[in-house]
Design goal:
This protein has about 90 residues and is mainly alpha-helical. It contains 2 helices and no strands. About 0% of the residues are buried.
Length: about 90
């Protein structure tokens, strides 16, 4: 009945440093392994694809702005020519 109140930490405090079958965890024994590599690779590929998509969208937006600006300049020039012709008549 008294043993039911002991936690595993108290039971291990009698001199055993780790439970049987468990080795000490260090940076050498705990690594992400192959699943961690695949997750990192997937994230890197996703970042690359996002960067390519972003650059494509920026180029498209810039090209549209250039076309809009040229169309406005052409319309302004056309209005200016029509005014000059109307003044000459």
């Amino acid at each position: 009945m008294i043993l039911a109140h002991f936690s595993p930490v108290v039971l291990l405090a009698d001199g055993a440093t780790t439970p049987p079958g468990m080795e000490e965890m260090t940076t050498a024994t705990v690594t992400p392994g192959l699943p961690g590599f695949f997750v990192f690779l997937a994230m890197a590929v996703a970042m690359l694809l996002l960067a390519l998509d972003l650059s494509r969208r920026v180029r498209r937006s810039s090209a549209r702005e250039n076309v809009r600006r040229r169309m406005e300049e052409a319309a302004e020039a056309e209005r200016g020519e029509s005014r000059n012709e109307a003044e000459r008549s």
